């Protein structure tokens, strides 16, 4: 089964028929994780808004382990993550999209592995390529289909390095300068440890990122939260169309 993990601005999948919620107990959370099952194009997919239904859980407080564990428990094998990001590369300005192929993790103090307690032996995973090339290719085709079909004229930066910062504050200009020097093209707060945990449970993981602002110091002015909100609002409809197209084609 395919799962969509919705980010900021995507706590519901418009146009997909809800088939109810599953509430999954996990070893990582006292509360059960609520996953919506949705039907579209003859398929059932799982939907999980990572910030919670009412968008109340900040990036550093998300229980990434419980979320990924719960998805795996109900039979999810593939995850498409939706992430709002700040643009660093010149082709990743607000309103445009990216399909990153690499990650640099700048987060700290997050529970970042399932391989921690009661181990029979120390376990490492290969993470050379953090994203599934199959899902990236499928997302690219789905995006192009929507972009051309609706004449949207949006850009897709079809590769790139996602820098994951701790948040919840946005970065300083100097921090973004460092990210740029490190090779980051976009910056967000929620890609890690989500992607690594998915790999630990052998789930395919791809990310469709929507740029909602220029990262700090890249644009001409300070970052306006109202600007972020308007790009989130405008972009998530397109994200939903891309996801639907991906489901139709798979
Ligand atoms: N930085 C980090 N995370 C973000 C940003 C940003 O500029 N915009 C949206 N998520």
Task: Summarize the structure in short.
The protein is of the alpha/beta class and 250 residues long.
Structure write-up:
The mean pLDDT is 95. The protein starts with a strand and ends with a helix. β3 (29-40) and β4 form a beta hairpin. It has one domain (2-109, 128-249): Nucleoside phosphorylase domain (Rossmann fold, 3-Layer(aba) Sandwich). Strands 1, 2, 3, 4, 5, 6, 7, 8, 9, 10 and 11 form an eleven-stranded mixed beta sheet that branches. With 250 residues, the chain is an alpha/beta fold. The protein has helices at residues 64-73, 133-149, 173-182, 194-200, 225-249; strands spanning 2-6, 17-26, 29-40, 43-49, 78-87, 97-98, 102-105, 156-157, 161-164, 186-188, 204-214. The longest helix has 25 residues, at 225-249. The radius of gyration is 17 Å and the shape is globular. Hypoxanthine binds at residues 84-86, 165, 170-171, 187-189, 212-213, 215.
How would you classify the quaternary structure? single chain
Task: Determine the CATH superfamily.
Answer: Nucleoside phosphorylase domain
Which regions are unreliable across 5 or more consecutive residues at pLDDT < 50? none
* Overall SS class: alpha/beta
- Quote the average pLDDT: 95
Q: What overall form do the CA principal axes indicate?
A: globular
CATH topology: Rossmann fold
The total beta strand count reads: 11
Major sheet: size, sense and barrel closure? 11 strands, mixed
Integer tally of domains: 1
Percentage of residues in helical conformation: 25-40%
Overall CATH architecture: 3-Layer(aba) Sandwich
């Amino acid at each position: 089964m395919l799962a969509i993990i919705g980010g900021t601005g995507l706590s519901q999948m418009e146009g997909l028929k809800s088939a109810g919620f599953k509430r999954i107990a996990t070893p990582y959370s006292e509360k059960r994780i609520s996953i919506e099952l949705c039907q579209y194009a003859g398929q059932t997919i799982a939907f999980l808004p990572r910030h919670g239904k009412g968008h109340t859980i900040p990036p550093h407080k998300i229980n990434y382990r419980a979320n990924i564990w719960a998805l795996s428990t109900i039979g999810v094998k593939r995850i498409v993550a939706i992430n709002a990001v700040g643009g660093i590369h010149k082709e990743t300005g607000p309103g445009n999209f990216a399909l990153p192929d690499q990650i640099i993790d700048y987060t700290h103090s997050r529970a970042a592995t399932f391989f921690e307690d009661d181990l029979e032996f120390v376990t490492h995973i290969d993470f050379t390529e953090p994203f599934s090339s199959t899902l990236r290719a499928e997302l690219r085709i789905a995006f192009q289909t929507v972009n051309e079909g609706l004449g949207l004229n949006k850009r897709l930066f079809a590769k790139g390095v996602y820098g994951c910062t701790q948040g919840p504050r946005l970065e300083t200009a100097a921090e973004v300068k460092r990210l740029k020097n490190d090779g980051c093209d976009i910056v967000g707060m929620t890609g890690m440890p989500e992607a690594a945990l998915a790999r630990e449970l052998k789930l395919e993981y791809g990310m469709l990122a929507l740029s909602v602002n220029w990262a700090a110091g890249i644009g001409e002015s300070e970052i306006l939260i109202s600007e972020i909100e308007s790009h989130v609002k405008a972009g998530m409809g397109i994200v939903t169309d891309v996801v639907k197209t991906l489901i139709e084609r798979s």
